[in-house]
Amino acid sequence: MPSFDPERMFAARLARMTESPILAMARKRRELVAAGHDVIALNIGEPDFDTPDHIRAAAKRAIDAGHTHYPPVAGLAELRAAIARKLREENGLDYAPDEIVVTGGAKQALANAMFALLEKGDEVILPAPYWVAYRGLVELVGATAVIVPATIDDGWRVPPQRLAAAITEKSRLLILNTPGNPSGVVLKESELAAIAELVRAHPRLMVISDEIYEYILFDGARMHSIAALNGMRERVITVNGFSKGFAMTGWRLGYAAAARPLAAAIAKMQGAFTAGANSIAQHAAIAALEGPRDAVEDMVRTYAERRRFVMQRLRAIEGVRAVAPEGAFYVLADVSADGGEDDAALCDRLLAERHVALTPGGAFGAPGTVRISFAASRADLAEGLNRFAAGLAAS
Ligand code: PLP
Question: What pTM did the predictor assign?
Fold first, then answer.
């Protein structure tokens, strides 16, 4: 009898998926911590704050009130109405509640949208540096990622003419992320207008705009949503969520806003995958949107102080270049001046020898850089950056 080999049972798509380098670094760090080492984590992509009290209280009330049943697939009516209000008041976007789909994190909104829109062979334009999960999802659905890079000399901003040159007959989707992870770039209205003009010239091109870091802005940077621009409402899926702004990563709650036929397609996909987002978390999210924002403002102030500290420290490290982020809580440090060691090898060495965890920029389409997260305490940032500098000097 031939023996059973589970490896031979796997679908080809499993081999197409590589382990996220972000998650790989997190796993290696956990292994070192479990082995008793003092590891400074500057690789973390989540707020180092707990969810504000009034949001947690709303969740407790929801449990006690018995909101423990399946919610509607596209989300609770009250939450969709609150999101529609938020989009109108804060982003200048006009969506009805039935044009909003509440999802299990922004990531689920991205997955639903890509499964609903993309076929094998379709091209997805991905300005780099990009959040690595976009690429993973594109590969999972069998589409092709067309990477359009920016360098540190571009200030990590992809010039529109470079985007234009990447658009072909097969282009179906352009993925924007503002404020950007890992670049910290916040797209200006004029930049979005130039991109919108490109998109309007291609009738089969759509846009996903991931705005999950929208509240984390520095030095007067202003948030703009491309869906608000002329002719873009029907072409853009705006993705957002509660993880970053409200420190709610573990609640797994996000949403997509899009014109009715698209929203229905996204909801249909969600019905197949999960049948809807967690009911308790949805009640908490209503409190997040409708309640006081002091805690959000406090967090942003703290990120701003840390950003100042990190930039000051980085400027003093020889061989390192960095552009001050306008938003989100990361800075990309260019370490390519040293030549030789590639960013993944450098991060592995810094973790093993100096016990500081950073994320290699190659994962984001920015080779020769490392991503430093300042969602970490001031003490950890000071010590982590000392270790980073010492590790670089020893290379
Ligand atoms: N979009 C970007 C740009 C992110 O950096 C992240 C998380 O790191 C997400 C989306 C995921 O958000 P969520 O926790 O809502 O799935």
Answer: 0.96
Distance CA 252, CA 264 (A): 21
For 110, left (φ over 0), alpha (ψ -120 to 50), or beta? alpha
Tokens 């306008």 belong to which residue? 326
69-290, what's its fold?
Aspartate Aminotransferase; domain 2 (3.40.640)
**Atom from ligand 1 closest to the CA of residue 22:** 8
pLDDT tier at 79 (50, 70, 90 boundaries)?
very high
According to CATH, where is 3.90.1150.10 located in the chain?
A: 6-50+294-393
pLDDT at position 278: 97
- For ligand 1, which residues put their CB under 6 angstroms from it? 45, 105-107, 131, 177, 181, 210, 212, 241, 243, 249, 254
pLDDT score of 8: 85
DSSP state at residue 105: S
Query: From CA 42, how far away is CA 366, in angstroms rounded?
Result: 18
Amino acid at 39: V
